[in-house]
Amino acid sequence: MQTPLESTLTRTYQVLGRPIQSLDRAFTRIIPIDSLDEKEFGEAIAVRYAAAKQGDEASRQYLQEILDQLSKFAKKPFKYRVFLLPHSVPNACALPGGVILVTEGLLEVLGSEAELVSVLAHEMGHVERGHCFEAVKFQMLFNKLKTPTLGKLADFAVGVMLRHAFSKTQENEADDYAFALILRTPYDPAAVGGAFASLKAYSGQEGRSKRSHADPVRDYFMTHPPLALRHDKYVQAARIWWQNHPGAKRYIGSGNLQLRESYYRRQRPGEWRQPGSHNSRG
Length: 282
Ligand SMILES: [Zn+2]
Fold this sequence. Notes:
Layout: H1 4-14, H2 38-52, H3 57-70, E1 81-85, E2 92-95, E3 99-103, H4 104-109, H5 113-128, H6 131-142, H7 150-163, H8 168-183, H9 190-206, H10 208-214, H11 227-244, E4 250-251, H12 254-259, E5 272-273
Helix pairs in contact: 2-7, 5-8, 5-9, 6-7, 9-11
């Protein structure tokens, strides 16, 4: 018998069960775990999700456009790629080599493009700080995988990461990375706290116990550190930033998220936050 968590995961795993096409010959190569290269590994994972074409393509392209801009600030040599999972529960998850999974539910629950940027930046933080690859390598060595091919290792990594819980320290690092990254973009840093507020509001509506069993992926929407604490910490950090930058002008992008039309395509006049302006939030 499957638990609700396992049955939601099954749909995500189905992607991985597909036959490997000849163009993916590299997948059948046997790779010693110690010499596994994270960049190449990310490519192997991405090929599978790309072939699966899950979720709404306009939404996926919208996400990728934003991620392309964010990844200009990344230090690791990965091609950051985002894939949509057809799940209504809001969440996101990072895989080694810069593959980021986002559920369709996340796009429904967040209030603005700036909040979406903060979630994507958090996931990038796990990759940039090496948390994902570290977790996967640990599990590979622990499970003593025999003569693994690149394709098998990629599947294994996805299995590990979908169930993985990062430590509290790693979550804090990813949140701090997200806050520092959003400051380098045109977006309002208050959106880091704002994303936590949107998720808190969602979990209040849905009832926590019911939801937690159905989570297809477990990263952003973890309850440790508690969402309320993360919210308060970054609301405060943004308040201080705004106090120190009274002349700043930052973008929110609620309409951009609704229409799946990024800031980089169209800047909407009513979406700027300026101190004293009527659409000020936070
Ligand atoms: Zn995280």
